[in-house]
Design a protein that fits this description.
Layout (H helix, E strand, L loop, with lengths): L2 H22 L4 H76 L2 H8 L4 H10 L2 H9 L3 H12 L10
Helix pairs in contact: 2-4, 3-5, 4-6
Amino acid sequence: MRILPLLISVLLLNVSLAAAAQESAPTSVEERRIRSAIEEQYNQIQKQGDQLKVEQMQLKTLQLEVDKKLVQMQGLRQELSQLLNRKQAEEGKRVTELSKIYEKMSSIKAADLIKSLKPQLAIELLGAMNKKNAGKILDNLDRKTATKLSTGFTQIPVKQTQGY
């Protein structure tokens, strides 16, 4: 007795599956074309999605490479900055030593040599000297050169730094 309702259920299920199969089967040429176009578009969308995933992975890889290069560049920049600081410190020591040499010369000879130097170096030399000796040297320079060096001595140099 219990088998009969179960058998009826199975028959009804088969009938409904057959009806659904008939509904999904294309009945006209137009319907087949539409289904084919929809399947083709679906496949294209899947291909585009796959291609997009590949491109995203490539972009992530490139981003990682760029980040590594940035870290390397920052390290090199820091190293270069340290080298420049050491160079400037060494140049400062040498200017101080050279100023002592100029102080030992006669003021006339030192003035003659200083006027042929680049103005910035001449200013640094005079600044590192004993003020009395620097005054004697300036006194032996022509008015134009002495004025130029005196003006340069009072100005504070601005160091140029390159931006990021």
